[in-house]
Structures are given as C-alpha cells and as structure tokens.
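Below is a typical protein record.
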Amino acid sequence: MRACLACLVAARFASDSFVKPLYSRAENPPSERKKLESATAWLKQSLHYEFADETLLKQALTHRSAAGDNNERLEFLGDSVLQLVISEMVYEKRPESSEGRLSRLRSTLVKDTTLGELGLEMGLGEHLILGSGEKKTGGHRRASILADTVEALFGAIYLDANLDAARKVIHKAFEDRIRTLPETAELRDPKSRLQEHIQGQKLALPEYAIEKVTGKAHKQFFESSCTISALDLKTLGAGTTRRDAEQEAAANMLEQIEAVE
C-alpha cells in the first residue's frame, strides 16, 4: 500500500512538473520576452542606452489600451525631464537669444508633432505594446501615441539611471534638430504667418473648424481644418489641443500655397 501511495505521489509530482509553465507569473511569456529583447536591441542601437530595470522599458512602451501598467505616469515625468534638457540645449546653442525667443525655440522641439516625427524616424512604432483596438487602427503609426511614448522613454531612463543618463539620450535623439535650429523669423507660428500672407493678397481670412475630437476628457486629440474659400483650398491638422491642431492645419496650408505659387 505504501509503495502504491509513493507511486501516486511521484506520478502527481511528475505531472505537475510537466504542465508547469517554463516562466513564472512574475516573468514575461515567450512572446513578450522576444518583443522586449527586440526593443532592448533597438534602443541600444538608436539611442545608445540599455535598461538595468527592464520592467521600466516595458512600461514605457505600453499604451493605456493594453493590459498591465501603462506609460501615462512615465510620460508625465518624461515631459518635465525633456523640457529641462531642451531648455539647457537651446540656452547653450543660442547665447544671444532673449527669453521669448528661447521659449519659442524650445516649443518647436518639444511639441507633439516634433516628438511624433522623432518617434517615427527612430522606428519606435514597431516596439509599442498596444491593445487590440489600437493595433487594428494603426496605433503604431499614430503621431500622438508616438509622441507620448517618446516622453515616457525619457522618464523611464531618468528613473532607471539618473538625469545625466536621460540628458545623454535626449542629446542623441535631438542632435540633428539642435544643429539645424530655425532662425527667429521662422519661429512665428503658422497661423500668424498664414494670416499675414492672406492679408497681403487682400483675401478673406482663413476659417478654422474642429473636424473631430477623440479620446477621454483629460486626454483629448483634436483634428482641425483650415479653409481659404477664395483659393478653394482646405487642409487638416491634428494635435492634443485645439490650438496645436489649428497651427498644424495652418502650416499645411502654407505648404499648399507655396506649391501653387
């Protein structure tokens, strides 16, 4: 009887060992493990940084539409880190500029459209962790998601190491844009430049309208249009505020007008 009982216990133990996953609950399943390894290699190659705490990298890449800890808190922190480091960079790059001009320079570098472009250029989209809905609708290419994730990465690097490490990564990410900072005359916002141009042509002022608003109340995304009836032209713009969306629509309109003229 004892021998049979021992056999049953041994069989049960062997069975449990066989069906037990190869990873614990605290660890990542093989598919996530592979995705994180790919993201780690990408980050090391593109921005010369490797995380000591890989969970911070995972969180920075996780959009709120996916399960688990998302990157919204890291985005909040990364925004402040980015503002500080970019302020330092433009301060050093333009010693002759006034406070107002420095502020406008900083704004051109940290605005959502710039960060979205940066994320796209770096190939960030393929490493995002998205919910099924965002995957189906092309969330990995959406400028607002890319911009938020760029900030979240900077915040995660700050926590993973320190401000100096984050500063080095931001310098690497923005080196080309700092090298080609626009002149002061180019810093006037697109709406102002478009209005001046239209008034010079003695045409009716552009008309702006909100075409679409998406997202929750605290995290909305706007799509605006800019119309110049006299020229039969209409352009669209997008941003996390109505103003940003209108500015992008105005900038797109200026490009159309220059192409026509």
About this structure: DSSP finds eleven helices and three strands in the chain. Confidence is low (pLDDT under 50) at residues 1-26. Residues 30-184 form a domain with the Ribonuclease iii, N-terminal Endonuclease Domain; Chain A fold (CATH 1.10.1520.10).
